[in-house]
Amino acid sequence: VGLRNGIRFYRDTDVPGRCFQKETIDRLQMELRCCGNNNFRDWFEVQWISNRYLDFTSKDVKDRIRSNVDGRYLVDGVPFSCCNPASPRPCLQYHLLDNNAHYNYEHQSEELNLYGRGCRQALVSYYMGMMNTIGLGVLSIILVQVSVIASMRFLQTAVEGAMALENPEGESEGYLLEKNLKDSLLDLQVTVLGLLKMGQVGPGADGATAEGEGAAATAATTTATAAAEAGEKPAN
Description:
Layout: H1 2-8, H2 21-32, H3 59-67, H4 119-164, H5 181-199, H6 203-232
């Protein structure tokens, strides 16, 4: 969607918020060596030339606009950024489907001097390569951190064992898990469930709290009433 909109708004160099689209698309196509969304023919379906650069007195311009239902100026051409500088032939930007418009040219059989792949494929390849590079780096960091944590665990248990023997110079073996893997997982499960239960508030707790507050309020009211009656009773 982003690339299609970028191509569709390519011509809006005077529209606020879209004036950067042309430069962005041109730079993208030149740097990634691509053309269009899927291929260069995507440019045939949009009017990528702004109306301010069209001569509306020209018969060719009028005929092209009238021949289109939406009144757009569509051409079988592409922007300059689609041109492949590695091609031995000078860049052909316009009349790409017209064999008579160029000398010794056959668009169905000749390899065009444009970038062959679309920019969507180019972007996917670019980010996949970046993810592969970053993924290896992240995996290396994780492995280093795991090895450091395991070493610290061995050191901790070895020191604790030596302190238990009351002989700091004695030999003590370190370990990762105090019990076997199955028992350690069961202990972890029990601990997690206990923490979850501590964080839960049962429905009876709210009711007991409300009942306690109601009883306290009733007792206070009774005490206040008794005190008032005692104050009103005449002394003997």
